[in-house]
Amino acid sequence: MNLLCLEVATEQELFNVYINTVARIVGSVEAAKKRIYLVSCGDSYGFGVELDQKDKYKLSVMGEVMLALPDCCFHVRNMNHNGMNILIETN
Predict the structure, then answer these.
(1) Of 25, 26, 64, whose CA–CA distance to 46 is shortest?
(2) DSSP-derived secondary structure letter, 15
(3) Could you tell me the residue ranges of all domains in the chain?
């Protein structure tokens, strides 16, 4: 997968990029995993993360982040996605 200037071979590598990006703001990988509630790697790439306005600003000015928007689909984190586990697992 080639995402702008980012080259990742697997979805798990992409998840790790998202986790590490958020971890730089929230202070740890574990805290980042708890805040990320949605990952998209289909037609478009991105992730949903629960942040306050201050941290949203920090995310939006990071060089590798193209855009930070409010999530109009925040409620999906409480839905059953056809039995699919959407938790992010890392080694």
Answers:
(1) 64
(2) H
(3) 2-78
